[in-house]
Amino acid sequence: MSSDPYISIVDVVKVYETATGGVTALRGVSFTVAKGELVVIMGPSGSGKTTLLSILGGLDRPSAGEVYVGGYALHKMSSKQLDKFRRSTIGFVFQFLNLIPKLTAYENIEIPMVARGVKDGRERILKIASELDIIDKLGRLVEELSGGEQQRVAIAAAVAADPPIIIADEPTAELDGETIEKVMDFFLGLKEEGKTIIVATHDPRVSRKADRIILIEDGLIKGVYSGGELVSSGVAIKSYRDYVRNRLVEIEDEIRLLGERFKKGELSIDEFINKYNRLREIKAFLEDELKFG
């Protein structure tokens, strides 16, 4: 892994204009990422994580500041140039997956390869699907798959065309603890191949695998730490424990809202049980973090 900046964000501000005025999502954010680094961005809902990923990936433009990715000055590029940059450089795992429900898992994974001119990608698709434990799902329509299976199809689609940078927004949100471990091991394998990976997450289990953790809140970076600092640095531990406490409050709200959705008939019993168990699993992990972290 090179120590030179491969990605550089300098004083980035993002303001969204609404009918009632401007909403500031990012407030002067600056940091760098080295080539081959696995960086996790953590923060509560509404902290600016998704906005930051969108700007890093050339999907959105900063209102102010500079964005350099792989030698490209994204803030200076035209829309056409950004389209070309994204196709050649970035593999996205979107929070809402962006899969095509009426196509099979295999076809969804194949689409980015076709778009980038990759020919005869079957062997690579099978290899990726095997590593993500979805090889037996490739022939099924995406709409027939569980949330966790769809999430792994989205990850496979993001990396299928072999982009040098992977940007993933909550890529483990629908996964249980065991599958999260498999997905993070998959990302670590990509890192060993020299890929640069940036992951936004609520889940501390994901952050444990990272080279660095960036804590963001209200559009501001509150700290940048290595995994080791989270267990040795007093400042890092306090920032991390504050995050964990805030996340526990969010989890309680999510469990309450989940119950309300189930009572209204918006979720089936299986969907409710799966989501409830996942939230309880995360809650138990976070409570252990406060005891032993």
Brief account:
With 293 residues, this protein is an alpha/beta fold. The protein has helices spanning 49-56, 79-89, 105-115, 122-131, 147-159, 177-192, 204-207, 229-232, 234-263, 269-292, and strands at 5-18, 21-34, 38-42, 64-69, 72-73, 90-93, 165-169, 196-201, 212-217, 220-226. It has two domains: 5-227, Rossmann fold, CATH 3.40.50.300; 236-293.
3D architecture notes:
This protein folds into two domains: 5-227, P-loop containing nucleotide triphosphate hydrolases (Rossmann fold), CATH 3.40.50; 236-293. Helices cover 45% and strands 24% of the residues. The protein has ten helices and ten strands. The strands form two sheets. The protein has a six-stranded mixed sheet, sandwiched between helices. β4 (64-69) and β5 (72-73) form a beta hairpin.
How large is the count of helical segments? Answer: 10
Reading side by side through the largest sheet, how are the strands ordered? 6-7-8-3-9-10
Major sheet: size, sense and barrel closure? 6 strands, mixed
Q: Report the helical percentage.
A: 40-55%
Q: Provide the residue-averaged pLDDT.
A: 89
Task: Give the CATH H-level superfamily of the largest domain.
Answer: P-loop containing nucleotide triphosphate hydrolases
Helical/strand content category: alpha/beta
**Low-pLDDT sequence parts:** none
How far do the termini sit from each other?
28 Å
Number of structurally distinct domains: 2
What CATH architecture label of the largest domain applies?
A: 3-Layer(aba) Sandwich
CATH topology label of the largest domain:
Rossmann fold
Broad shape: globular
As a whole number of angstroms, the C-alpha radius of gyration is 19 Å
Content of β-strand = 15-25%
For this entry, what is the oligomeric state of its chains? Answer: single chain
Order of helices and strands: EEEHEEHEHHHEHEHEEHHH
**How many beta strands in the DSSP annotation?**
10
CATH class of the largest domain: Alpha Beta
